[in-house]
Amino acid sequence: MESCPNIAGREIRRRLNIGYIGLALTIVTIAYIIIVKQDHLRFIVFFPAILMTISFFEAWDKTCIVNAYFGIKNMGEKNHRERDADSLKVQRLQSVKIVVKAVLSAAILTAIIYSI
User: Fold this and answer.
1) What distance in Å separates the CA atoms of residue 112 and residue 107, rounded to the nearest whole number?
2) Does residue 95 come out as left (phi exceeding 0), alpha (psi in the -120 to 50 range) or beta?
3) Which residue of 12, 19, 33, 104 has the lowest C-beta tally within 10 Å?
4) What is the Cα–Cα distance from 90 to 21, expressed in whole angstroms?
5) What is the pTM of this model?
6) DSSP assignment of the chain
7) Which are the contacts of 53, defined by CB distance < 8 A and separation ≥ 6?
8) Other CB atoms closer than 10 Å to residue 5's CB: what's the count?
């Protein structure tokens, strides 16, 4: 079993919206650092970037990292307990992958800002 989504519909749109907000905050943070020349604050780009990347990866992979941890599935109507142990295992593994990809992406973006 390669993929086992635990969110759908409205939940995916919600995460995309949060990702776009994180993208806007990341751009504003980068612009502030560059315009005001606050080079010592470049590390703060990591925080809106991690918000953005986790949200986008959750939406793209259709897996909520919190729901996977608690064994919950929300496919549109309401939360349901995940009963299938194999599905839950796949969801939890996917959530770990999302966190790793998000941290690496945010760290790379922060490193790029440091090099500018």
Assistant:
1) 9
2) alpha
3) 104
4) 29
5) 0.88
6) ------B-THHHHHHHHHHHHHHHHHHHHHHHHHHTT-GGGGGGGHHHHHHHHHHHHHHHHT--HHHHHHTEEESSSSEEE---HHHHHHHHHHHHHHHHHHHHHHHHHHHHHHH-
7) 19, 22, 101, 102, 103, 105, 106
8) 18
Per-residue pLDDT of the chain (116 residues; tens, 9 = 90+): 466 777 888 889 999 999 999 999 999 999 999 899 888 889 999 999 999 999 999 999 988 898 888 888 777 777 778 788 888 888 889 999 999 999 999 999 999 998 88
Token couple for 109: 């973006």
Instruction: Give the residue carrying structure tokens 């909520």.
Output: 64
Residue with tokens 């593994």: 93
Rounded-to-integer distance, Cα 23 and Cα 43, Å: 16
